[in-house]
Structure formats: C-alpha cells, structure tokens
Design a protein that fits this description.
By secondary structure, the protein is mainly alpha-helical. The chain folds into 2 domains: 333 residues, no CATH class; 131 residues. Helix content is 58%, strand content 4%. The chain is built from 24 helices and 5 strands. It has a 5-stranded mixed β-sheet. Helix 1 packs antiparallel against helix 4 and helix 4 crosses helix 17. It is globular and about 90 Å long. The chain starts with 19 loop residues before the first helix and ends with a helix.
Length: 557
C-alpha cells in the first residue's frame, strides 16, 4: 500500500518511508558514521584475514591461492588513495555495505511494489549482526554480498520487467562477485528456479541476445581466476576440496576423510546455531514473512515474494547439506540473507499495516469493552510486529556493542564472553617482535628475519612491523596447509634463491614446535610468548643459522 491512507480509512504505516529519500538518508548516514568510526574511533587492529588480503594487495595478480583477486584489488586502490593504514584497508567494507543496503532497498521496492518495503528491507539488512560485522571488517564477504544484492535486483528487473540492460547488469554483478567469492555462483540455481516457476507467465522476455550478453559478461569474471589457476596447477580447486574434506584437497592426510564418509551431528547443530547468532532476530522475522507469503500466494504480489524466497533458500539448503560432509563455517551462507532482508521489509510493512487496522478497530470500542487482543500487551499485536521490535532493539544494542567489544571484555562477570584475541594486540606483538629482532641484530651482527607457522600471523607481522618487511610463512613445511606465501617467489621458502638469501641468518619464529624449526636452523632457542599474545601455547623461538627447510631436511636424512 503506497498511499498515506489505506482503503479502510486507516492511516498506512510509515508513509514517510515510501520515497527514496528516507532510505538514502538512512544508508548514507550509517555509512558516514562507519567511516568516521573507522578513521578516528576504531580500537581494533586488523584481523588475520584482513592483514592477509592486504599482503595480497602488495602483490597484485590475476587471482590467488584460495580466493579471487577482487579483495586485493579493492584494498590496493584504497591504500593507494589514502595510505597504508587500518582504516584505509577497511574503507571498502563500509562502502560495500552501503551499496548492498541500497540494492536490498531497490530490490524490495520493485519486487514488493511498495516503497516502504525498501526502507525497512535496508533497515533489516543493517540490523543483522552478520552484516554489521562485514560492514566494518575488510574480508571477501562484504563486497561479495554487495554484488549478490545488485545481481538479485538486476535479475528481478530482467525476468519480470523484460529489461535487456538488466541482463547485462546481472552478468556484471555475478562476474565481479566471482572475483571476490566463488559462492556468488550459488545465486544461479535460485534464478533458474524462479525462471521455471514463471516460465508460463510470458513476462521478462527481453530477447535471447540480451540473455547471452549477460551470460558472456558474467563468464568474464571467471577468466582471471581460471587463467591464474591453469598456470599454477589449479591450487584453488585443491583448496576448496580440502575445505570439504574430499580427496584431492590440500590438507594433510590425517585430516582427510579418506577412510570413507563420516558425520558428526555437532557439525549441523553448531552450523544452525551459528545462523541464529549471525542473523539474529531478523532470521525469525524472515521465516515468519516467508510462511505468510506462501500462505497468501494467490495474491497479486506473490511473484515478487516468491523471487525473494527462491533466491535465498538454495544457498542455505546447500550449506546445511555440506554440514553432513564436513564442518562448515557459519559465515558461508550469509548471501542467502540478502533477499531475506528484502522479504522482511515487506513483512514489516504488511504486518504493521494490519496492526494499525486492528488497533483502530480495537480503539473504536468502548474502553470497558476492549478485550486483551495482544501477545504481550493488551492492544492488538502480531508476531511479525513483535519480532520487528525485538530486531530493532537487539540490532542497535549489538551494533553499538560491536564498536567497543574491548570495553565489554573488561566487564566483570561477562567479560569472558567477549574474547578479543583476534581483534586486538597485533600492534603490541609486532612491537615486541621488533625489539627482539633488534636484539638478534646486535647479538649476531646479521640481519634477522621472521617466519610464522600460520599465514595470518605472518601477515599481521608484515603489516605492523616497522618498515613492513617481507615475512615468511612455513605452514606447508611444518605439517600445515599450503598458503599464498608458497606461490610468491620472494616468500616461497622452497625457492633456492630465497634460501640462498637467508642462509646463515638468524630469525624470530612463531608457532609450530621446536622440533619442526630444528629442521631448518643450526640451533633453536625457545623464548617467551610475544607481549600482547592472547592464545595460550603459541610459542616463540629464536633460530640461529638458517640452513633452509629443504637443505636442512636433506642433511637430517
């Protein structure tokens, strides 16, 4: 209902949200506040993935070991414009979140034929805990979600309005999204599903030329990833197989499922519990809205609501299925919540219009004859209206709390619930590492270097050490997985030229065990953990006289 007053004479809910102005003010306001926060108020150091993607941005390529090149290209552009700083690394995340929210609003407006659904769809998106996090941290998820939202909006206009250019925009969004995260391809089953549902409607026929153009443009996003992998032996394929625990993956043999299929029910239960935490109260709002939409599928607005449902369900279903094969990470299906946010926008408006109608009828009764008509209050209420209220309150509390989790971590009784190890202390650890490197320099008269067992720790050291030096990663040489460091000639410890440049030099070593480091050094000395280290058991060593993992291993044999 777009009018300020409905056909029953009852004023419609939130008529001020019908135009684009309110939505633009909301999204631009939130984006501006996030940028201010990142530049001047954010207390968090980079997390490991952010630092690793920054390392990629220093070595631009067509693709990388585990992901496409999109995240590296974005960070490189931002740091080129604004300098090498934490906020410059994270700036694209805030901008991508704004783009995603606007696309969710546009999709909800068009698919639900109600401008107010756009405002509340964007609101739900911004209130979801998972999208609040990806709006502040620069990982592959934020830009991919923005591309997913743009693709959904373009897909609706292409299939329901017969827009030829929308097919091209759809292809661009999918192609660009693939450069960030391959999961964007999971939108295709939803689009095909919807096309099959609407195959007899006669709508959305823009011509096969436009469809072919969209497909062609979308496939261009695959080209750089495929080209890089073809030149490097398809490491991304091995990485993805390793994530799924399948044969041919890049995990060590003891971690594979080579003995046959095995299943731990905890994988599925923890995955579903994670979705409740990541999506928050809007998850229940989306489920309720979907059931209401399906129950009323004979209404004129059903096609739009069906589109929002079928574009999200396949993603969630696929990852539930994955949980029967391996332990999935909670953030993997987040793209499925994009169209759910738009559906929630319709659900809020539909429920609130009905609540206002019921309350008007209830208020018209004599005061003494008004029955208890609500769920928690006397006046009429609806489940979706209550969940919306809860979503707003919890979303704001979580959003504000997320900005200073470090304060919550110091609170009595509840501080243990907010571990800060991944988000703070990297700069302090690097300062301690720099002091130890200087001591090594004075002690040996040689230039020391740093090797970390884990790629994230190597990347954090590279970002926070003075001068941002080259740091090495020994994961694949110490019974761990291969990493991107193995594919850069200047950081590959198997490269004979790197080995010759480091021979005889001392090093600061983090992670792994003293036995593993002894393979590559003449002498290894244990040391205390780095100052600011929160992970118990992450050891630090000093290696004297580097002789190389390959050469050292041969000597040991």
């Amino acid at each position: 209902m777009s009018e300020a007053v409905g056909t029953t004479g009852v004023r419609a809910f939130a008529p001020w949200a019908n135009g684009w102005r309110a939505t633009l003010l909301l999204v631009l306001g939130v984006t501006a506040l996030r940028i201010v926060y990142l530049v001047w108020l954010c207390p968090y150091t980079l997390i490991e993935d952010e630092a690793h993607y920054w390392e990629w941005s220093r070595r631009l390529a067509l693709s990388y070991y585990s992901k496409g090149p999109g995240v590296a290209w974005l960070i490189a552009a931002s740091t080129w414009l604004f300098g090498e700083s934490e906020w410059a690394v994270r700036l694209p995340a805030a901008l991508a979140s704004g783009v995603a929210a606007l696309c969710v609003a546009g999709l909800a407006r068009d698919a639900c034929d109600d401008g107010r659904a756009g405002f509340f769809g964007a609101s739900v998106f911004l209130l979801m805990p998972v999208f609040q996090v990806v709006g502040l941290l620069m990982t592959i998820d934020g830009p991919m979600v923005a591309c997913w939202a743009a693709a959904c909006w373009a897909g609706w206009r292409a299939m329901e309005r017969g827009s030829g250019p929308a097919w091209v925009v759809l292809g661009v969004a999918l192609g660009v999204g693939f450069l960030f995260k391959y999961v964007v391809a999971l939108l295709v089953p939803g689009l095909v599903w919807y096309a099959l549902l609407r195959r007899r409607s006669g709508r959305g026929r823009a011509g096969w030329g436009w469809v072919a153009a969209g497909i062609g443009v979308g496939l261009l996003g695959v080209v750089p990833v495929a080209a890089w992998n073809a030149l490097h032996g398809w490491p991304t394929v091995h990485h993805l197989l390793g994530h799924l625990g399948l044969p041919g993956g890049d995990v060590v043999p003891t971690q594979t499922t080579g003995g046959g299929w095995r299943y731990d029910p905890k994988w599925t239960l923890e995955f579903l519990g994670g979705q409740i935490a990541l999506a928050g109260a809007p998850l229940w709002l989306g489920i309720c809205s979907a059931f209401v939409a399906i129950r009323r599928r004979g209404e004129a607005g059903w096609p739009g609501r069906a589109f929002l449902i079928v574009c999200g369900v396949p993603v969630l279903a696929i990852y539930v299925a994955v949980s029967f094969v391996t332990e999935p990470e909670g953030n993997w299906p987040m793209a499925g919540y994009v169209t759910m946010a738009a559906l929630c926008g319709w659900g809020v408006v539909d429920a609130m219009d009905e609540v206002l109608r019921r309350r008007a009828a209830w208020s018209a009764l004599p005061r003494g004859e008004r029955p208890w008509a609500g769920i928690v209050r006397r006046k009429p209420e609806m489940h979706r209206q209550i969940v919306w209220d809860v979503s707003v309150v919890l979303g704001l509390v979580i959003g504000v709390g997320t900005l200073r989790i470090d304060v919550l971590s110091r609170a009595p009784l509840v501080g243990w619930m907010f571990p800060m190890g991944r988000m703070m202390g990297a700069d302090e650890q690097a300062a301690d590492a720099a002091a130890r490197l200087e001591a090594l320099r004075e002690r040996t008269g040689l230039e020391p270097f740093v090797i970390a067992q884990q790629y994230g720790r190597a990347s954090l050291m590279a970002f926070y050490l003075p001068g941002r030096p080259t740091v090495y990663c020994a994961s694949s040489l110490t019974a761990g997985r291969a990493t991107q460091y193995d594919h850069w000639p200047e950081t590959d410890l198997r490269n004979p030229e790197v080995e010759r440049a480091l021979l005889g030099r001392p090093a600061l070593l983090t992670g792994a065990t003293i036995e593993q480091w002894r393979l590559a050094f003449e002498r290894v000395e244990p040391g205390p953990q780095l100052r600011g280290e929160s992970k118990v058991g992450r050891l630090v060593f000093v290696g004297i006289g580097y002789r190389g993992f390959i050469s050292g291993d041969e000597e040991g044999r």
